[in-house]
Q: What sequence folds into this?
């Protein structure tokens, strides 16, 4: 019984792997216009940022740790 | 025989290895290789017929790339200073939207030649490693130096050192 089911299971696993792998793609340096957009910045809204900082400080006893330079264009 | 978790892992690894190899298989233009002829990529602008005869600096840039913006005054100065010695600077934009390309040029008004790789065919053929990237070509159109990014005075110094050597070379 077991030997019959194994190849079918392998085929299904391979199919799923290929389907999942098909979604993998490296974003090239020249394709990062959307990532470099201002709206992708974590600090784009100063008010929301200040509120989050306040929440973290008062509830989690932590602050800072947001030192991310620029957006996602990966320039330089 | 493989257990079930292992039998899932094997095809997964195989598939990712195949996709990874496919992604990495594109060959980048390297030092010592001829730069592709610009006329073959449907670039918008005053495309030079040949890359031979002059030392050429080709800079890949985009309007959304902050270091590219910072590099323009430096490239402009290099063109003005070294142009009479036989250098031509060409800026190739990889912007997808022509409006962004035009508005960037309107603001910065560079004195050097700019071309628009609207379909991103040239940048894909060259496989530019970062934005911006600068290629220095000798008078035979061979890539002699590749500079990744723009790092202010350090980049200008590195480019000038290479250009001094290239401009004094004879065919």
A:
């Amino acid at each position: 019984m077991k030997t019959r089911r194994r190849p079918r299971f392998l085929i299904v696993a391979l199919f799923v792997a290929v389907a999942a792998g098909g979604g993998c793609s490296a974003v090239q340096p020249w394709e990062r216009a959307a990532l470099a957009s201002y709206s992708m910045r974590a600090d784009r809204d100063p008010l929301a940022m200040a509120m989050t900082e306040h929440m973290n400080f008062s509830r989690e006893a932590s602050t800072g740790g947001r030192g991310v330079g620029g957006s996602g264009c990966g320039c330089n | 025989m493989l257990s079930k978790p292992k039998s899932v892992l094997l095809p997964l690894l195989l598939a990712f290895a195949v996709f990874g190899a496919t992604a990495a298989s594109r060959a980048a233009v390297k030092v010592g290789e001829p730069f592709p002829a610009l006329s073959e990529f449907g670039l918008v602008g005053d495309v030079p017929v040949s890359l031979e005869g002059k030392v050429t600096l080709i800079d890949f840039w985009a309007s959304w790339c902050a270091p590219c913006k910072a590099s323009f005054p430096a490239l402009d100065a290099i063109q003005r200073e070294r142009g009479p010695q036989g250098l031509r600077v060409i800026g190739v934009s990889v912007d997808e939207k022509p409006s962004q390309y035009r508005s960037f040029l309107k603001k910065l008004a560079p004195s050097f030649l700019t071309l628009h790789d609207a379909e991103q065919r040239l940048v894909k053929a060259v496989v530019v490693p970062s934005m911006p990237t600068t290629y220095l070509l000798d008078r035979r159109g061979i890539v002699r130096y590749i500079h990744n990014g723009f790092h202010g005075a350090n980049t200008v110094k590195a480019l000038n050192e290479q250009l001094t050597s290239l401009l004094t070379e004879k065919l």
Observations:
- The mean pLDDT of chain A is 79.
- The CA atoms of residues 2 and 9 of chain A lie 10 Å apart.
- The helical segments of chain A are 2-21, 46-59.
- The radius of gyration of chain A is 22 Å.
